[in-house]
C-alpha cells in the first residue's frame, strides 16, 4: 500500500484475522430459492449465492460484518426441516487479507 505497513504478524495470525467475518459454504437439501429466501432473512447475512446440485443446493453465504454465520445458518436450515450435508468457513487466504487491509487503510485515509 504505497510502501506503508498496513498489517503485520505471522502468516497464521494474518490468516486468522482474515477468517473473521469470512464467508461460509453450506450444502443442504433445499432448492436454491428456498435456501436464498431463508438465509437472506437472517439480519447478519449480506449475500447468498446458491447453486443447485441435484436434490441439494450449495451456497456461499457472506456476512454483513465480522459475524460467524455458521450457527445461525445451521439453526435456520434445521428449523425449516432442511438436512445439512456440509457447513464450514471458506478458507481465508493471505491475499484476501492483504486486499482487505489495503482497502480499509484507503477508506480511513479518504
- For the secondary structure, the number of strands is 4
Radius of gyration: 16 Å
Mean pLDDT: 84
Indicate the overall shape.
Answer: elongated
> Could you estimate the helical fraction of the residues in percent?
40-55%
Low-confidence stretches: none
What composes the largest sheet?
Answer: 4 strands, antiparallel
Q: In DSSP terms, counting alpha (H) and pi (I) runs of 4 or more, how many helices?
A: 4
Terminal CA distance: 14 Å
Order of adjacent strands in the largest pleated sheet: 2-3-1-4
The portion of residues forming beta strands comes to: 25-35%
* String of helices and strands: HEHEEHEH
Q: Would you tell me the structural class of the helices and strands?
A: alpha+beta
Structure described in brief:
The protein is 40% helix and 25% strand. A four-stranded antiparallel β-sheet has the order 2-3-1-4, with helices on one face. With 110 residues, it is an alpha+beta fold.
